[in-house]
Amino acid sequence: MGNSYAGQLRTTRFEEVLHNSIEASLRSNIVVPRPVFSQLYLEAEEPAAQNGRTENDDENDEDGSESNSPPIPYQMKPPPEGCCTTDGFCQAGRDLRLSSLASDSLDVSPGFMLIGLKSPSLPDSLLVVAVDHRFLPDERGHNALLGFSGNCIGCGEKGFRYFTDFANHINLKLSTQPKKQKHLKFHLFRNSQGVLVKGAPICWRGHDGRIRQMSSSLSELHATSDERTSSVALLRSSHAASSYTAASHANGVPQSSDTAQPLPNGIIPASSIAQAVINHSGPGRPSTAGMQTNAGPPKKRHKGWSPESSANSSSVLPSSTVATNGAKLDASATLSSSQRSSATLFPTGLSVAVPDQLLHTCGLQPVIFKGHGPLPQLTGNFNEVLVSSLLQSCYLSSQSLPRVYQHYGPSPIQPLSTEMQILLTVYYLVQLGPEQVPLIEDLEQIFMRSWRESHLSEIRQNQQPQTPASQGRHYGIEAPPTLSGLPQHLGLAPQQPLTPSQLPWLAQLAASSCGEGVVVLGEHVGSLAQGLQQMFSKLMEGRFENTNYIVVIVTASGHETQSCVVVTGKHQCRALAENMFSPNEGLREINYQLSSGEAQELIQFCSSLGQASSFTDGDIDSLLDGATLDSNEPSPLSSSQESTDEKSLKNTHSPKDSLSPKDRVLTPKETCSEFSVEWRDIRPIQLAVARKLLSHVCAIADSSTQNLDLVSFDRVSFLILVPPSEVTFQQTVLHLWSSGVLQELGTLEQDSVSQRQAEHYVVKMDQSAQVRVDSLIQEAHTNSYTLYILVHDHAHWDISSASYCSTDSGLGLVDQLLNSRKVRDAPNILILHVTSFPFALQTQFTRISPYNEIHWPSSYSNDVDLYHERTRYFGVSELLESTRSGSSLPLMRCDTSFESMASALEERFPKLHSAVIRTTVLIHHYCAALMAVSGRIGGSHNLHKHTSVETLGIVQALLSAAQQCPAHHGHMILLRIPSLALAAWAHRRLSRVRRQLGLEESFEIILGNPSQPLNIGHNFIDQIKLWLKIQEADWVPRTYLELEALPCILILSGAEPQGESLPRSLKYCDLRVISCSYLQRTTVEQELGLAAYLLKTESRSPHNPGPGSDLLESDGEKLSTTDIEEEESQENESSPVSSNQPVQSSPDVGTSDPFPTQSSTSTSPNVPKSAMDSTTQPSQAQAQPPTAQSSSQSFLYPQLSFPHSSQSLTLPVYSLAQPIFHPLAQTNSLAYFQTLPQHQVAHAPPQPLAPAVRSRRHPSKSTSSSSSSPRASSPHLSCSWARGVSRPPSVLLPRSLYDIITANDGSGLPRCTSFLPHMSVAWASSFRPLLSKMMTCTEQSLYYRQWTVPRPYHMDSNNRTEGRSDNFHPRRLLLSGPPQVGKTGAYLHFLGILSRMLIRLMEVDIYNEEEIHFSVQKDDVQYNPPDALWPDPEVVKALPFDYTVHDPKYDDISLVYCPGYKPACDATPVRQEDMCLRRRTTRIKLSKYAAFNTYHHCEQCHLYLGFNPRYQVNITQIYESTLHAFTFTHLLLGEEIQLYFIIPKSKEHYFSFNQPGGQLEGMRLPLAADRSPDCIKSPIFTPTTGRHEHGLFNLYHAMDGASHLHILVIKEYEMAVYKKYWPNHILLVLPPVFNGAGIGAAHFLIKELSYHNLELERSRRQEGSGATGDVWPFIILADDSCVMWNVVEFDARNGPAEHAASLKQVLQHMEDCPHLAHYGLCGIRKWSSRVFTDPTTWEPFSRGHLHDFLLLNVDRSQNVQYDQNRFTCHDVDFTLRLHSAGLLICRFNNFSVMKKQIAIGGYRTFIIKTKMTDVPTSVGPSQYVCAPDSKHLFLATPAQLLLEKYLQHTSHKLFPLSTKNYDHPVLSVDFYINLGPEVTVCFVSSRPHSVNICTTGLLFSGLLLCFADAFVTPSFLKKFSFLKGATLCVIGADRSSLRQTVGRLELEEEWRFRLSDEFQTANAKEDWPLFFLTGKHI
Q1: Residue 499 per-residue DSSP state
Q2: Staple 149 to which of 132, 273, 1099, 1142, CB 3.0 to 4.6 Å?
Q3: 1380 in Cβ contact with 1094 (< 8 Å)
Q4: Taking the CB of residue 666, how many other CB atoms lie within 10 A of it?
Q5: Cα–Cα dist 1913/1941, whole Å
Q6: What is the distance between the terminal CA atoms of the chain, rounded to a whole angstrom?
Q7: Would the pLDDT of 1526 be above 60?
Q8: Which residues touch 124 (CB under 8 Å, ≥6 apart)?
Q9: Is the pLDDT of residue 1813 over 90?
Q10: How far is CA 1547 from CA 1605, 1607, 1625, 1944, in A?
């Protein structure tokens, strides 16, 4: 293959497998090369090394200089005849030299890289070649495939598979065989100028200068499997590395923590082992064994074969991690058999024997971390040794440089060397404390800092501004500061490389600083096997008893440095061993230990009180049995179920019980006025978040992708998915039921909604969820007008891939349901993920767009309440802040006393799981504390030695809180025990102790099992019902929120919290037994989130700075007392402690305690007097006066008292400034009780509450001075619960977890923020920056989107499509916010406002006005039956024409005189300026036949509009428009009119052209006889201006799918914007001269164009021998605000009824009207809700004025034109002239049109302004006109508009006799103009044979002549009579025309004129002003 091999291939089988493997790699289409040598089987008997060299060393040597063998002679193949043989050129004669090609553009195939090749004949030049990157080494000189694949850059020839052939082609004239390692020298890259230059050299060699590409570097003997449960805790790497027990070495197979889960197609996941078999090598500890088959590639080349398509699917798939460049790198090699050699440093078969009895002798199970080099095989007692590859994965990851540093700059950037990694590891282990467990994150950051500082200049030079191909913002790699406790010099790389010979003594020098803590075995160690053997020997001899870590280093000469780390610290070994369990396996191990009885010895040991006790019997159970005569409890470990007698305890009462709350009524003294439940209220910040959610939904709808059509939905439905927790389910149901959302959505009626009905909308994510979600998908498919919201609450809970989860595991349901294709493709399903921990959903493959994330806002900014809700959120960050305040005891702390006891027992019981030990100790402490506080046990003053100070305080707070409230409100204590079995045992144990102590009525013990409902005793249920005022007899609490103020211990179990909310009465959050093995950020923060709290800020005084301050009652008292409620008990005279002396302040305490406990004068004999000092402020050192015991205090919770008062105890108080010597430390009772914390506050025995002692107490001198205190005078002023509402709970943590999360990382953030965010994701690279302290939530999201990738079992791992930049689901939102902050209420409110918005979108404001100006005298003649379908022309002619305008929009115009009309006397004129404000509208829901604006985007009308994103490929062709000119001559205008049509390609069939694509000839018109059920014959013209967005031009739904011709008539300057918004509509563009014209001009041109087109169409048909008179002559003139149409139907019984109708129905009915051609104009009524005043006299047809929607006969009305100059009342003027011409006008009253109120645009919006635009002035109507030739302020407004507005507003002055004088109107000839509402106009036509009203005997108050034509004559005017003093107004185009009109009409005979009565509109001369002349009748 073109490569020489110095060693000889021993067997033909090796040749065959090697050849096939290389060929398979060549043909593979994957980016990642498969390890070639991992498929080879070397014979075990053959020597692995020859003369210190591997067999393949010579293959990797450049020139064989290190070999003694002579070079192999080589004869190059002669070149073909006629080829070019010039050096630097290929055989095709093309130049390959870099100097020639530097500036050329080169074509490089995908996957190939430009390489600089060195030619011996051209020493000063490089040749440019293209090489497949798979055959080149990575940054470390590894992972290069054997063989070659290259292309010639010069001639472009491709497919060179052998370097020999390629060398011949490029004319390499060599005397030895060509080798790629010798000639491929440099990477090439383009600099900033685009010039190709030489880059970093290709790393063909390793760090030590020799090439080490042997099989051990690609595949080790002990292969690793991808950890399914890879977490970041306790040396669990964030990378997908494996850990397994040493037992696997015996079988040659690693032991995985997970069983292999086969996929449905039979392929084993990459994280599992092929054909894995589970067996038990120990109790509860699985081991995996399996066999691997070698399924090689076929021997012959097969074009379609690839390694992935092998027939043998049982071969193991290599697991991988993902680097920053997106390429996959092998993180672990495939499995190998025990016979295969993976190392050549020691003979094959060399193994290490594990000594017998290792665990028994040493008391630990060592953990071996593989480092550099292969680990030898372990034999013998290998079950007692654990082996992990996590450290090795960390090493490999830290050596995988990002691609950004590979191809830039001439200087190489190398990763850390092996020696430097080992030395830094030793340094890190040295600085760890004796109880600390190493963390991979810390080690990675150390490597990162060292590497960065060693290459700081190169990195700064080569950093690129471009972001990598990943989502989100690119955060540059910054140098993190040194970790806490790490020597500063660790991060600094040495200037000189660290040599292997220096490593051992430098490592030993570093280890010497910590004594025996870290031991380095480096000297005289020839191999790892030898070093491990020495380690085991010394370990068995006890020489490593004080050693935690042993580092084995092998630096044999001529070989690579090898290393491993052995953990021998007992605490570290236990933590690491438990860390190798997955969370589920850990719980199974605990269950096994409990069920097998292994924990029984521990239980008995803890129950024993020791021999030195003062008790006669040293067993707790014996003491309890002595206290009561109760029946014996069954074995606590024999069953997880409650015994029968314990079940009865829940439901029965003792005979001595007092009356239950159900049977009695609380007296006023027993009522707590401060109790309130507020969790149902919606807070302002929740409203703000709901609005943010709504705005994001609207943003999706408004985006150009149009993935959500909100306008098409008319209702909202939803389904809330919650984890399978019964409490979470009921809690969500409760929130939903109380929110009112169901009523708001109209789902259920207000009075009928119950919680049971609300459960239909919430579903638990268990197996039942499949049916519910499938039902919703089916419902969404059938109801396309309903928007379905899938709310995925607690979204981080189940993110497992469905393909990796079994059906019975309950996981993977979210992926199966929400990520299904049906949900993804449904256009009406929107998914809302809601979580407090969104990190796992923010990866490189996330489905959620960063623009669709909604983060909970901060309610405070600079201590200002932004939302005025008077609450402050107290969460994880505030808890951490309280640990750093230093002013008081922190709210979050660890119990050092408990930790020391648990650690001692962990050493005593090394085989037990730490959770079993810690839980047993904790419950023992609670039992002892209950016994001590109750006072029922004799000699209880010694019981405090068997519990911790913290536990004593918790128990006393629990028991004393309810004593101080008249309603017995108390606190909740949360006890978090993840294991269900341990939680059940703890519940039984505590219940028995409570029962035997007689405390059953004092507090409840609740077992919080996620899969079971709450079980509360009846007496407590009755108490809660009294507090919550619940009347239902069968009500029981189902959520923890309903346990508000109930004194209880809640044992919360489950592997992780599942979204349960806790009440405000939570006082302590005891997390001392949670697991510390899985330290992901999500895991840690959701446990701490249980203590999240909403504080009432209004209850804080100015002197109380708030949470975390020294003035918090919560735990502040622990500076001096055993319980935070001690001060409260003093207030209520419930404490026997007297205080006669003030306590001095300790200098070590920063701030004094505001609630001190007064020390007694008598001290305990076991407590030194010096320990009695405490800290307080003298002003507050006051005790409360004693009061008699109130009778009201005899309640359900019995008083705790001793049998006799002499047993009353005192409270010794310890100072923080002094070491505390516990009395028990002087005894030898128990080994684990011998240590107490030096920094923790210690407490003395608790105080039993003895009424007898209280009654004999007398006030001291110090207490009498405080009688004026409110608390002293009123013992029941406030209860403990009420004060606790404004104080957050305290949190107790394990010490290991506390130390981790309270420390800061390099950026100043808590260490937990730098943890891996979730176990289902992995870091994309070790070369990542730390999170910044200044990052916002959005920036954190972008950080995780860039630096994390999902593991294969993450549901987003398959969300990657080639060729796409993103894979975001368009309708998926993410709401994130801190825990317990109110997210449920926010998204429920969002559902409500979304529903209201959809209703609002489906409703429009319709003008709803009654017709105006009806005559008082009604005509009772019925002309047509009410149910007549069509009008009869003869009947219509008999109908009287109604001159009066009844349209309410014309309420401000002049009345048209009608003889039969009698106006109302009380009519009040209305000015037009008030019209828009006063017009009455009604909100009406849109029907399915509505017209829409541009914001409507539904699937049905996408093609109609031209905005369908699914057809973007052809959208240019489909909606391409062409501009056509159309010219015609108008006789009246005397000139040609040129219009422009913009016609889409899809609408060209409506027009005729002289040739295809040629000159436009006209519109095609149908014949009158044509009938089509799906066609509208009349063209629809809609004049519009300024309403390109809001105009209702989408008639698709209104037409009900009928074919129609719709033309928008627009002005020339609006052409572009209308074309943009309506690309599929025909646009008729008016000439530019009409840009400033009114609606009259548009209607004038439409009518004239239509008539001209009618004539053309007749001519065209005549030329085609068709009938000429049959062409359809009607057009439709529609307003752009017509939204819906209605039809009136008559029922014989119920009368007329109006309902929605389609425009198609209306138009087809009118077009089908018989004799329609007889009518000149038809129209329909404007809708009004009050039209049917008298249904019996309903007239279906009438004659009168028509508006807004007209059917115009352009043929019959050809002689009547619209006035092109009119701006207002043009339709009134046209109708009057049309009627006077004798044409029939008919209104179809059975049809009505609804007009939408559109406040934007329209023809009525004209602004009158001055020509001097820079001078803002308000112009009044009197300034619209001026005297001719005067100096007046000219206006930039058309003259006609100025004239119309002037006459409208000032006619009452111009025609004074006409004001409010209906009987004497103004005579207007041939012209109607609005003279204002106070003046009546009488219209007459001067045309011959015109129809006019009878004016005989009528005296007119004025005469109006406007542009009088020749038909107006003096004789015509003499027919009319005028009042004396009547006003004449003559209007003309200029002054001369005025004089001509006056002379022609002989007006001076009867009218008097003055020069001062001549006016003009306020226009400049160039604007053509209008002139008018006024005169008086003589």
Answers
A1: P
A2: 132
A3: yes
A4: 16
A5: 10
A6: 124
A7: yes
A8: none
A9: no
A10: 8, 11, 8, 53
Whether the CA torsion 850, 851, 856, 861 is positive or negative: it is positive
Q: Would you say how long the chain is, in residues?
A: 1978
**Would you state the pLDDT for residue 609?**
60
* Backbone φ, ψ for residue 205 (5° rounding): -110, 165
| C-beta of residue 1477 within 8 angstroms of C-beta of residue 1394 | no
Closest CA to 56 of 89, 17, 19, 8: 8
- Asked if 1719 and 1743 count as a contact pair (C-beta separation under 8 A), the reply is no
d(CA 193, CA 1912): 85
pLDDT 10s digits, 1529-1565: 876 666 788 899 999 999 999 999 987 778 899 999 9
Q: Write down the pLDDT at residue 1467.
A: 52
Radius of gyration, CA atoms only, the chain: 47
Helix (H, G, I), strand (E, B) or coil at 423: helix
Closest by Cα among 1062, 1039, 1121 to 1284: 1062
**How far, in Å, CA of 1004 to CA of 1646, rounded?**
85
> What global pTM score does this model have?
0.68
324 pLDDT more than 60: no
Contacts of 78 (CB under 8 A, 6+ apart): none
Query: Higher model confidence: residue 136 or residue 1170?
Result: 136
Q: How far apart, in whole angstroms, are the C-alpha atoms of residue 1649 and residue 905?
A: 102
Quote the pLDDT of residue 1663.
Answer: 82
Each residue's pLDDT tens digit, 302-318: 333 333 333 333 333 33
CA distances from residue 1866 to 1042, 1333, 1846, 1931, 1973 in whole angstroms, order as listed: 80, 82, 16, 15, 16
Question: How far is Cα 1280 from Cα 1278, in angstroms, rounded to an integer?
Answer: 7
E-strand ranges in 290-427 read 320-322, 328-330, 351-354, 367-370, 377-380, 386-388
- What does pLDDT average to over the chain? 76
DSSP symbols for 30-70:
SSSPPPSGGG----TTS-S-BTTB-TTHHHH-SS-TT-SSP
pLDDT exceeds cutoff 70 at 655: no
Instruction: Determine the Cα–Cα distance for residues 908 and 1231; give it in Å rounded to an integer.
Output: 10
Measured CA angle at 859 (ends 856, 864), to 5 deg: 160
* The pairing of beta strand 150-151 with beta strand 122-132: antiparallel
pLDDT tens, position by position, 1255-1297: 333 333 333 333 333 333 334 446 778 887 878 999 999 998 9
Beta carbons of 1750 and 1721 less than 8 angstroms apart: yes
Residue 143 has what pLDDT? 76
Average pLDDT rounded to a whole number, residues 1164-1175: 36
Helix 418-431 with 503-511: angle, nearest 10 deg: 10
Strands (E) across 735-828 are located at 762-764, 786-793
- Find, among 1355, 1318, 1322, 260, the residue nearest to 802 by Cα: 1355
Rounded to the nearest 5°, which phi and psi values hold at 1296? -65, -40
Mean pLDDT throughout 183-208?
79
Confidence of residue 835 (pLDDT cuts 50, 70, 90): very high
Name the nearest CA neighbour of 1581 among 1766, 1755, 1719, 1748: 1748
Residue 1578 confidence (pLDDT) above 90: yes
Q: Which residues, including other chains, have CB under 8 Å from residue 1283's CB and lie 6 or more apart?
A: 1113, 1128
From CA 1082, how far away is CA 1078, in angstroms rounded? Answer: 10
- The pLDDT, as a whole number, for residue 1501 is 82
CA neighbours within 13 Å on the CB side: how many for 1874?
25
Give the H/E segment covering residue 461.
Answer: helix 456-462
1081-1088 helix and 876-885 helix, angle to the nearest 10 degrees = 80
pLDDT tier at 135, thresholds 50, 70, 90? confident
Q: Over 70: is that where the pLDDT of 1102 sits?
A: no
